[in-house]
Amino acid sequence: MSVNDLFKQELKVVNLGLKSFHNDLKSQGVTVVQVNWKPKAGGKKNMLDLLSKINKVKKS
Amino acid sequence: MIELIETANKEALEIIQNGQPTLIGLGVAGDVIPGMAKDLFLHAGPPITWEKMSGPLRGGVMAGLMYEGLAATPEEAAEYAASGKLRFDPCHHHDAVGPMAGIVTSRMPVWIIENKAYGNRAYCTLNEGLGKVLRMGAYGPEVIKHLQWMEKVLYPVLKETIEIHGPIDLKIMIAQAVQMGDEVHNRNKAATSLLIREIAPSILKTSFSNEEKIVVLEFLNSNDHTFLNLSMPAAKATLEPAGKVKHSTIVYTMARNGTEFGIRVAGLGARWFTAPAEIIDGLYFPGFSMQDANPDVGDSCITETLGIGGFSMATAPAIVQFVGGTPKDAVRYTTSMYEITTEESRAYKLPPMNFRGAPTGIDIRKVIETQVLPVINTGIAHKEAGVGQVGAGIVHPPMVCFEQALEAFVNLLEDEGLLEE
């Protein structure tokens, strides 16, 4: 399906990330679902490093 | 490979699921709590000095000193507490837990709970009821008089009652209460009723006068939080053996001293990970606001550590009238706690969650990964000593406690040579 065909149909949107996109679409009457999603460890690099390390425990 | 941690966590969860907290009797703190002494006061939360104690903790210590006869006035008590003659230690270091200020002194009567599956015990004072009470940092003459009444009348009657009745299985009682609208932290109406129903005939069989039996029954019935001081040590007794499982990332203690929030993780032993305690978002009594509030205080979030309390708020919709929010929020809180826990309780089933078990076994890795913090519902004490409770609400531990714990855990694995290069 081409993008143009898609926009000729009723839009049903699943939004990840900024909630303002969800709110804007909703105010225009678009069916939209906001996914409660956050980047892993809030995107904190030091915590991502620790999680990566803890997943590398040697097989006992 | 993360089998080492998964196996350890499975073992810790098996211990928690198999726990059999049982009320076996009552005793005097100085006689039954390990390491208890006349010059030692136990308090809620992680270790703290008199200098760093907040108002409610100081107020509780002052009340304790006057109750023990070590000081005659609040001024004398404050001087004594600052003199260095008194030692302070967390309840948690002595197999005990205490609500709010959590002050335990050697003369105080305590419930004795035994985890029949593992043989360990936990202790907690008797709940003082509402109004001006030591646990909220009040230290007026009425507080001391009430503590004396508890020692002279309430304690001997209840002690003989449990001797007559025999042990009471608290796991079954909590399991029933969470199906009757309690989460057994800030709502204990059903659990307290179940307890009274269970022990009332034995109270009548005691050797005390009718007048004493009546006043004890009336007191228990007047105080919905009677059972809180049983649900807390029941949770403590259940979690404590899991705290000895090496390489487990499961949290076995969360506690606050009114200045700091602290957590302990099974694989990291007795070490506390602390950060400044938060101010509580909640409903304040008329005439009070957030400006009057002391930061988060008390050992009562041991209930949340087990998966009841705030973790099971969905099952106690009426509690939102006390802590704020809507019943829908309560379901949302409980739903989100499954994100950071490992198993569902086999004993504590929540009807509004289609009888899913309470979210059990907080994993520090999941807290960091999802950035979802444990949810705790709690009473709010006034920041100044002597005032008491000013509201109730919802609070979370500081994320930094979990971040520090994760870092320490990785360091431990590195030190033990258990991480792949």
What does this structure look like?
The complex is a heterodimer of chains A (60) and B (421). Chain A is α+β, with helices and mostly antiparallel strands and 60 residues long. Chain A has helices at 3-8, 19-27, 45-54, and strands at residues 12-16, 31-35. Chain A has one domain (3-54). Chain A is built from 3 helices and 2 strands; from the N terminus they run H-E-H-E-H. Chain A has a two-stranded parallel sheet. The longest helix of chain A is centred in the C-terminal third of the chain and has 10 residues, at 45-54. The radius of gyration of chain A is 19 Å and the shape is elongated. Chain B has a domain at 241-415: v583 domain like (v583 fold, Alpha-Beta Complex), CATH 3.90.1700. In chain B, the strands form 5 sheets. A 4-stranded antiparallel β-sheet of chain B has the order 5-4-1-6. In chain B, strand 8 (260-265) and strand 9 form a beta hairpin. In chain B, helix 3 packs across helix 4 and helix 5 (141-165) packs across helix 7. The longest helix of chain B has 25 residues, at 141-165. Chain B starts with a helix and ends in a 6-residue tail after the last helix. In chain B, 38% of the residues lie in helices and 20% in strands. With 421 residues, chain B is an alpha+beta fold.
